[in-house]
Amino acid sequence: xxxxxxxxxxxxxxxxxxxxxxxxxxxxxxxxxxxxxxxxxxxxxxxxxxxxxxxxxxxxxxxxxxxxxxxxxxxxxxxxxxxxxxxxxxxxxxxxxxxxxxxxxxxxxxxxxxxxxxxxxxxxxxxxxxxxxxxxxxxxxxxxxxxxxxxxxxxxxxxxxxxxxxxxxxxxxxxxxxxxxxxxxxxxxxxxxxxxxxxxxxxxxxxxxxxxxxxxxxxxxxxxxxxxxxxxxxxxxxxxxxxxxxxxxxxxxxxxxxxxxxxxxxxxxxxxxxxxxxxxxxxxxxxxxxxxxxxxxxxxxxxxxxxxxxxxxxxxx
Length: 317
Hints:
There is one protein chain. This protein is globular. It contains 13 helices and ten strands. The two termini are 15 Å apart. It is an alpha/beta fold. The chain has a single domain, classed as Alpha-Beta Barrel (TIM Barrel), CATH 3.20.20.
């Protein structure tokens, strides 16, 4: 399929490259060379880029988080101006301080023209092992700003603090994308949903990668348990209701038909968007899978293009 739009693709600053091969580092810092060539080869018309993780969220000093977010957003906006017909961007945000996050989001959207925010999980402050989750009351003004600006918020994974989860000890193969990312991100997303956030802001839209970080698989069971005993949960509706009205999911790093079909069935076709997770995943692999996935032409067009055009209010040729 030509004309695809993809929404979870990454770039890096020199000081956010982190561990990885020289090839990965090169691709993270490339905007208009091989990245565009691969997009052309794979039938991708437009890509929304975001800063790699955990980056800003891992800064324990708020001033450094603010500086990194500003530098990332300025660089991204500058690169987008060179190819606005091919690239868009998500803002990095210093969530360590809600007021600072509000100011940067307003600047990034209002002045730089970025399309929303991509935040790499919980943030840190006051030293290590002090995770900040965004369902806390002090973040409600931030969410009100996201709602006011009418832009999506992409909750991207990061590793949990493993010393707080002893079951990971001695099992490094279960860290990062193989298991820990989904575990951590699903919990954070569910905290936001269960907090009543979307009751207060029914138009707010959150995006999750990797076909929903495994939440769609357990929707029935979770709702069945909570309907019997909600245990004081603030949210007024079922998890399924919020997933079908306030959450979108992308195919990033989930290039397999069965989970795609389950997610469509649980959430509805309009809630699913195509993505790769480049350069951590192969653009060729993800595109080839999607182009051959068991979908009708109408479904492929919706997931591959028109759902993103609608969510991000894009006008592409």
